[in-house]
Write a structure and sequence with these properties.
Layout: E1 14-22, E2 29-36, E3 42-46, H1 53-68, H2 76-85, H3 93-114, H4 118-121, E4 130-138, H5 141-153, E5 158-163, E6 174-175, H6 177-195, E7 200-204, H7 211-220, E8 228-230, H8 241-247, E9 252-254, H9 265-269, E10 275-276, H10 286-299, E11 302-303, H11 313-325, E12 332-333, H12 339-344, E13 351-352, E14 355-356, H13 370-374, E15 391-392
Helix pairs in contact: 1-3, 2-3, 5-6, 6-7, 7-8
């Protein structure tokens, strides 16, 4: 008998699912709220796919809500399996983010029902705080060094170092991957020389070099002793990781663009990466991410969940619940939230000394002031993202 036909399953039922779109920092966040028939009992989840926010909202309200009304929110695993299989064509960033919003909200509800934080539901704490890194971006090497120092002065000891795509271009606005591969090792060497050996540096290639240049770039970055090198090959080119692995001693991270949780399996199994850079909502939420964390633990791979500004405070709360409970945790990416966001999302995580505190509040420990959210309506996708619409010097679109 399916769980929803079991009258003895309990009195709590899902009564509705709503989507809130808001852009307090100029990037549209997608937050899902699952309501129940118990007064004051609801859950929040992050479903942010900011480039296709309205599509995710439609997927939630048009397809997921009708399947959820009347269900017991405690049946998290069964609901996840049902919604994952429901569209027939499985995975994909729109359907998975919609699923994630529901999944996180159900974990939030269960924690509130039991009066415990979600990390307790996952087995309790492995650590009392979550070490994090944040981003420093410069227009040239000297500016980048200054920006890194600002991050260090704020207490972080792990810093991602980026040069804006315009900086290494040979003929703006064209992107020159060969020029990037030639210049970036020198840029990071300057940063390392400036900050010393006690700081952990990270660099994200953002899949912007052809696969045949990836091994060369990784090898030449060895001298800068990176904490990890991210997305040195495109998602479509992961077969090249073995060659990159053989060429470098630099730890490798990949995966923020993966949308099927099983895409990670061969890479983790064969130890072709050191850090899983999973965007938790893009694979469907806490339920599959917790399975992935266990997989990583079995093969000595660490997690580094995606955490840029298009992960809402709700999504960050889910990341932190996973981080604090998982032995395979490595590092957490973190975008410092503005005061506006903190007011809108009571309970938003804060970093002190480069370490994120973890809430003891029931559920995910986060809430949403919808009146404040309404003052910051969703915005169209910006058409000139530095990395999303690059063209090479010959005019072709830069995919990888």
């Amino acid at each position: 008998m399916p769980p929803w036909q079991d009258d003895a399953a309990g009195g709590t039922r899902i009564t509705g699912v709503r989507v809130v779109l808001t852009a307090p920092e100029g990037v549209t966040l997608v937050v899902v709220r699952v309501d129940t028939n118990v007064a004051g009992l609801y859950g929040l989840g992050c479903a942010t796919f900011t480039q296709r926010a309205s599509a995710v909202a439609s997927a939630v309200t048009d397809y997921l809500e009708p399947a959820l009304v009347g269900r017991d929110p405690a049946d998290i695993t069964d609901i996840w399996q049902m919604l994952y299989a429901d569209p027939y064509w499985r995975s994909g960033p729109v359907t998975n983010n919609a699923l994630s919003g529901v999944d996180m909200a159900l974990w939030d509800i269960k924690g509130k029902q039991l009066g415990v934080p979600v990390w307790q539901l996952l087995g309790g704490r492995c650590r009392t705080g979550v070490p994090a890194y944040t981003r420093a971006t410069g227009t040239d090497p000297a500016h980048l060094v200054d920006q890194v120092q600002r991050v260090l002065d704020s207490g972080f000891r792990h810093v991602r170092c980026d040069i804006r795509p315009a900086a290494p271009r040979s003929a703006p606005p064209a992107w020159d991957p060969d020029g990037y591969v030639r210049t970036m090792p020198g840029v990071l060497a300057q940063v390392r020389a400036a900050v010393g050996e006690d700081v952990e540096l990270i660099h994200d290639v953002h899949q912007r070099v052809p696969a045949h240049l990836a091994a060369r770039l990784a090898r030449e970055l060895d001298a800068s002793r990176l904490y990890f090198l991210e997305d040195v090959v495109a998602t479509e080119d992961v077969e090249w990781l073995a060659a990159v692995r053989a060429a470098t001693t630099t730890p490798l991270a990949i995966g923020e663009l993966f949308t099927n949780p099983r895409e990670y399996v061969p890479l983790v199994r064969d130890r072709l990466l050191d850090f899983v850079r999973c965007h938790v909502s893009a694979i469907g939420g806490i339920t599959p991410a917790w399975r992935l964390a266990h997989l990583c633990e079995s093969f000595g791979v660490q997690t580094a969940w995606h955490g840029p500004k298009d992960v809402s405070p709700v999504g960050m709360a889910a990341n932190l619940a996973l981080d604090v409970a998982s032995p395979s945790f490595g590092i957490q990416e973190y975008h410092p939230f503005s005061d506006v966001v903190r007011e809108m999302f009571p309970g938003t995580a804060t970093a002190r000394g480069g370490v994120l505190g973890v809430s003891d509040a029931p559920g995910l420990g986060i809430d949403l002031d919808e009146r404040l959210a309404a003052r910051h309506p969703s915005v169209p996708v910006t058409p000139n993202w530095d990395w999303a619409r690059l063209r090479r010097t010959d005019g072709a679109v830069q995919l990888r």
